[in-house]
Write a structure and sequence with these properties.
It comes from Pseudomonas monachiensis. This protein has about 400 residues and is mainly alpha-helical. The protein has three domains: about 55 residues, no CATH class; about 80 residues, DNA polymerase, domain 1; about 170 residues, Intergrase catalytic core (hpI Integrase, Chain A), CATH 1.10.443. About 45% of the residues lie in helices and about 10% in strands. The strands form three sheets. It has a three-stranded antiparallel sheet, with helices on one face. It has a three-stranded antiparallel sheet with strand order 4-5-8. α3 runs antiparallel to α4. The chain is globular. The N and C termini lie far apart (about 80 Å). The relative contact order is 0.07.
C-alpha cells in the first residue's frame, strides 16, 4: 500500500500505483509519475478525489483512466443508451462471473435475438408493452421464449441495481405464445427389446457406455464428464457433480443445484462399469473416452457420430436421438412403480412436478386393489381412527 497504508505506493522507478474500490471491484491503476515524496502526495490527493467522485456518483472511469483495460468494463451508462450497446457492455462485465456455457448462450441470444429485436431502442423507452409486442413476433416454443427473456431480465435487473433504470419492465412476468397441443412430444423411450437390439449392435468398446446411459438417466453432458473418483462402489452410488458442454473447454459444475446428486448404481449400470474398467480404469480420470481417439469426449455431439449412429443403423431400431436414453431410464423406473420423488432426484430435478408433467403416462394408474390397505387399517377399527374435527367441537 502507500506510505501510510492508504492505497498509494511506488510501482516502479517511473510510476505510482493507486488502489481503490469501485462497483465492488478492487481496482489498481498506475500514474506516470516518479515516486518522489511530492508525487506520492499528489497521488494521494488524486485518489481522494476519485473516491469522492465515486461517493457522489460522478466518477467516470474511462475519462479518468482512458488507457486502462478496465475503462470499457466500467464505461458509464445512462438510460438513453441503446439497448444493443448496453447488452454488449453488460455481457462483458458479467463474463468473468458466469460459466462458459452460460456466456455462450447469452452471447448468441443477444446477437441473434435481442439486438435485432430491441437493439436500436433507447434503454429508457423500453416498456412491458414493447416487450410483449416484439416477443409476439418471435414464433418459437415457449421454452425458447422463456430462455431469451431470462437473459434479458438478468441484464435489466443489473440496470436497475446500477440505478440506470428505475424498474425492470420484465420483472414478475414473461411473455408466452399460445401453443397448440402436440399430438406427440419428444419423450419417446426405447422398449427393452429395442435396448437389447441396440446393445447387440454396438461394438464391444462402446457397449458399456450405452448400457450405462440406459440405466442411470445421466444427461450426455454429465456422462462424458464422469470420473472414476465419482463412483462409490461400496455405497453403490454415482456422484454427479459436473458436466462437459460444447462451449466449455473443461467440465463445469452442473447446470442447477439439484443437478448435483447421487444416482443409485443399479445392477445393469454396475455391469457396464465393470466392463469399462478394463478399458479406462488404469488411466484414471474420465470413465468414458472417445473410442476412436482414446481422449476425453470434447462434447456430447461426438457420441452421436462415433457411438450412437453406427449402433442405431445396425440395430434396425426406429431412429431416436441419444437423449432418449435418459427418457428410457425415467420411463422404466416409473413403469416399475418406483417413487416419483425418488426418480426426480435420480434425474436431477428439484421436485417431481416435472416428472409428472413429462412422464405422467408411465406412472401406473391405481390398481383394482387400491385403497385396500387403508380400508383394512382404518375401517371398523376405532383405536387407529383419527379424531374428527366435529368431535372436537362438541
Amino acid at each position: 500500500m502507500g506510505r501510510d497504508g492508504g492505497g498509494v505506493r511506488a510501482a516502479s522507478a517511473s510510476s505510482i500505483e493507486i488502489t481503490f474500490q469501485y462497483q465492488g471491484v478492487r481496482c489498481r491503476e498506475r500514474i506516470a509519475l516518479k515516486p518522489t515524496a511530492a508525487n506520492l502526495k499528489k497521488a494521494e490527493q488524486h485518489k481522494a478525489a476519485i473516491e469522492y467522485s465515486i461517493a457522489n456518483g460522478t466518477f467516470d472511469y474511462a475519462a479518468t483512466f482512458p488507457k486502462s483495460k478496465r475503462a470499457l468494463t466500467f464505461r458509464r451508462t445512462d438510460a438513453s443508451q441503446t439497448i444493443g450497446d448496453y447488452l454488449t457492455e453488460w455481457l462483458e462485465r458479467k463474463t468473468p462471473t458466469l460459466k462458459s456455457s452460460t456466456v455462450a448462450f447469452y452471447a448468441t441470444t443477444i446477437r441473434a435475438i435481442l439486438k435485432p429485436m430491441f437493439g436500436d431502442l433507447p434503454l429508457n423507452e423500453l416498456s412491458k408493452k414493447i416487450i410483449r409486442e416484439k416477443m409476439s413476433t418471435y414464433q418459437v416454443v415457449n421454452k425458447t421464449l422463456m430462455n431469451v427473456q431470462s437473459c434479458f431480465r438478468s441484464a435489466l435487473n443489473d440496470a436497475v441495481e446500477d440505478e440506470i433504470l428505475e424498474s425492470n419492465p420484465l420483472s414478475g412476468w414473461a411473455y408466452k405464445n399460445r401453443e397448440q397441443l402436440k399430438e406427440e412430444d419428444d419423450v419417446d423411450p426405447f422398449t427393452r427389446e429395442e435396448q437389447l437390439a441396440i446393445l447387440a449392435a454396438a461394438r464391444g468398446d462402446t457397449w458399456p457406455q450405452l448400457q450405462f446411459s440406459f440405466w442411470t438417466g445421466l444427461r450426455p453432458s454429465e456422462l462424458i464428464a464422469l470420473e472414476w473418483g465419482d463412483i462409490d462402489w461400496i455405497a453403490g452410488e454415482i456422484r454427479v457433480v459436473r458436466a462437459k458442454t460444447r462451449a466449455a473447454k473443461e467440465p463445469e459444475s452442473t447446470k442447477t443445484l439439484a443437478g448435483r446428486r447421487t444416482v443409485k448404481l443399479l445392477a445393469p449400470a454396475r455391469e457396464a462399469l465393470l466392463k469399462q474398467k478394463e478399458l479406462t480404469f488404469l488411466a484414471g480420470g474420465r470413465v468414458f473416452l472417445n473410442t476412436i481417439t482414446g481422449e476425453p469426449w470434447k462434447h456430447a455431439g461426438y457420441i452421436y457420430r462415433v457411438i450412437w449412429m453406427p449402433a442405431m443403423k445396425k440395430s434396425g431400431v426406429r431412429w431416436r436421438r441419444p437423449y432418449q436414453s435418459r427418457h428410457t431410464y425415467a420411463s422404466m423406473m416409473l413403469s416399475a412403480g418406483e417413487n416419483p420423488m425418488w426418480v426426480a432426484k435420480q434425474l436431477g430435478h428439484k421436485d417431481w412436478t416435472m416428472i409428472a408433467k413429462v412422464y405422467g403416462r408411465w406412472m401406473p394408474s391405481a390398481d383394482v386393489g387400491a385403497g385396500g390397505r387403508a380400508e383394512a387399517l382404518f375401517a371398523g377399527n376405532a383405536s387407529v381412527m383419527t379424531t374428527s374435527p366435529l368431535d372436537d367441537a362438541v
